[in-house]
Amino acid sequence: MASKTAAKDIITLRGSAAIVSEFFGYAANSILYNRAVYPEESFARVKKYGLPMLLTKDEGVKSFISNLNAQLSEWLEAGKLQRVVLVIMSMNTGEVLERWNFSIETDNEVVEKGVSREKSDKEIMREIQAIMRQIASSITYLPCLDEQCVFDVLAYTDTDVAVPFTWMESSDAKLIANPQMVKLHSFDTKIHKVNTLVSYKNDEEESDDEE
Amino acid sequence: MMLRTPVPKRARPIEPAPIIESPPTGSDHHRQLAIYEDPPSADPARREPSHEPLQQSEHMLCTYQCRQMVKADFLDALSNAEKQVQDYQSQLAELSDNFRKADEERKTFREKLSYAEQELAAAKGREQALHDQLLKEVNDSHERLKKELESSAKLQTKLENEQNLRKKAESTAASAEDKARELEAKLGHISQSIEKEKKQLNNELVHLKRDSKFSISKITVDLEKMEFRAQSSEKEVELLRKQQEDLQSKFSQCLHQKSELEKKLTSLSFEDDSPKESDILVKHLQEELRNYESEVREARKLKSAHENIELIKEKLLEEKSRRERAELQLPKLHEYEFKINELEDELSAWKLMIQDIPGVSCRDDIRLRISALQKEVIDNLKKLGDVNAHLKQMEVILDKTQLDKQKTETEAVLAKEKADRLEAEVKRMNVMLSAVSEERNVLKTAIEDFKSKNEQAGGNASSSIMQIQELGSSILEREPYIKELEGDLFAQKEINAHQRDEIKSLHDRLNSEARRVKSLERENDRLRSEIFLLESKIGHGDFSAANTKVLRMVNTLAVGNDAKQTIEALQSELQRTKEKLQALEEYKSQSGNSGKMVDSYMSGKVAQLKEQIATLEKREERYKTVFADRISVFRRACCELFGYKIVMDERQRPNGIPVTRFTLQSIYAMNDDEKLEFEYESGNTNIVENSYTSTSEISQQVDIFVRKMNSIPAFTANLTVESFNRRTLS
After folding, report:
1. I want to staple B537 with a disulfide (CB 3.0 to 4.6 A). Which of B298, B463, B542, B603 is the partner?
2. Under an 8 A CB cutoff, do A197 and B538 touch?
3. How many angstroms separate the Cα of B541 from the Cα of each of A99, A177, B28, B256?
4. Cα(A144)–Cα(B343) distance, integer angstroms
5. Is A136 on the interface with B (CB under 8 A)?
6. Full-prediction pTM beyond 0.80?
7. What ipTM was predicted for this assembly?
């Protein structure tokens, strides 16, 4: 785990995997709150990354996200995880409306040799903070989700990964045709680099049709 | 002139015959014939022409002996002279041979000289050519340097332009970022104002709700009053109906009695036996009739009242139905109010945005403006990225050109140094050439002198020999110089050849580097386009099935949500119906039969709701049993596989963060106090200290396995093995 030195902190593979999986948990909660997938009153306020973050109080969603985080942490330590995608779909029609794409680049040398890297914890937290702020401000340009929505999580892994019993292999990557894409900031623990990108259904065609 | 009278002889010295040696060149003047000479007095007499004939007569007076002696001497002298002549001839022949040899040597030396002159001329020519070539190369290198400097100056100007562009782009990006920040700040303000307004509206909504609740409660109270009134009126109606029925029956009885009495009266009118009794009867009957008529009137009144009551009942039913419809539409009203509030919030937000955003006059413009701004930002970001990429390319190219420039500068410096060296060498060669030419001139003059001397002297072989010897010695002295010159020429040739090779190799290297730079630039463009394509593919979500597979977690949240929502809705409906049932049952207990109409409607609904409740409760029970079965199976399997009974417990920390606590008890534990406690929070598991873990043995193991090696499974496995060993041994 991370231990403090003078200016930079030592980051191990396990610590980096924990940081990334924790980030994904809080990001998923933030997305569910900001996109109003679940009602506001089902979220509780906590302090994390120097910001007031919202965590769901719904037991089902909580257990889902915690199980997800545990599995992601395991895959990250093995260096097998390539991407995590949070998909928001319409409940009635099942149409994919938004895809929150978190692509992960792993330093294979650390996975193979077990070496550690050095980076300041504060800097990592600053980078994650910037991403969280961007997620919160994404409501300004993302189209309104007027209908009831549900979410799903997809994990892009290496082909040699054993499928856990709570997961299943899916041939449908839940893509959006002709999406609009917005690239957000990224953060780097020197072992895992996470790039965030949101792609959403092009709202202009609908508005043109309406006009 | 031979004198007749010899001079008195001098005593000949007792010596051997004089050895007549071959005379050295031009040195035997004293070996000539001893010519009698007149005494010194004669010489002055000779000098005086008047004394000459006297002397001649004296001379004629010499004796024959003298003549013989003179003849002998003369002959001796002649022989000697002949010998000397022969000697001299032989010497001359030798000298002539020597002269010939010297001449030949001179010729050879002359040839050598001419050859050396030719070689010198050729070397000079070659030097000149080399000099020209060097000058050309120096000029070329100067030109190349100038071109390189010009190109570097151009690149520098380009770099400055690009830097200016980059600064401009950065400034535009900074201004765009500032604008974005301002917009974000404005959005923040807007969101804060929206939140404030939301809070205000929520408060207003709460007040409205309270007011609506009050109004609803009032309405309910009024309704209840109306119900009570209706119930009371129903009761009255029934009473009146009963009374009416009684009265009707009585009326019919009275009518029947009346008819009988009338019959009796008619019959009595004929008889007229007891008029008084009949009058009394009639009076009684009339009174009864009046009573009955009054009762009939009352009954009619009651009937009208009953009809009114029925009308009121119908009105009550209508109002009840209206109330039910209003109650059904109340939640919709809430929803509509909520939507109205949302729309009002949105409108106010849009209005604020319209006021804040320049160039926007109406709501439709906002989207266009925001999309235009977004596009602008995206385009600016793209441009910035392109400019950055281009700038980096230019920086790389500039670095390369600077490196090339440095290389060429060093090469130019080296070439200059070489040129300087070559020039110095050329100068030295020129100096040497001048020296050699001077020596050649000296030699020429010497040769000409020698020639002239040869021509002048003719027989002076010794002087020619001396000159030839001098020439030979000077030529011998000049030979090392000539060898040195030849060596320098050769070295110069080698240096020039080496330089030419170096220059060729440098040219080749330059060309190859230029080709490499172009190929790298092409590859850079290709890679950039590939990166763009890949990023778009990543954004789209494409993946390669050879390297990647897509996994999806089994998500029961949607289904669970639906079920939960239906359950919640049904539960709320159930509660409402229960309350209604309670109210109705209370009313029933109060009224009894008055609520028959309501009972029939409510009972049907109650039955339906009870059925739904029963099915939902059964479903819930089924879910609970299935979950309990599965979880117990899982727990038993975990216990048997890993040797620990695991108890899971959800807790909350003081800061509000939920934490899961796991309590593990080994199946080989000696007592119930041997429990391990772990806290699990968002992927991190930490051991919690308790009385068991604070014992020396366990704390040691915790330090080693958990704290140092950071492995909880190793700790639990070690503990299991130790407990097993302890158990088996005991």
Report:
1. B542
2. yes
3. 9, 10, 128, 100
4. 13
5. no
6. no
7. 0.87
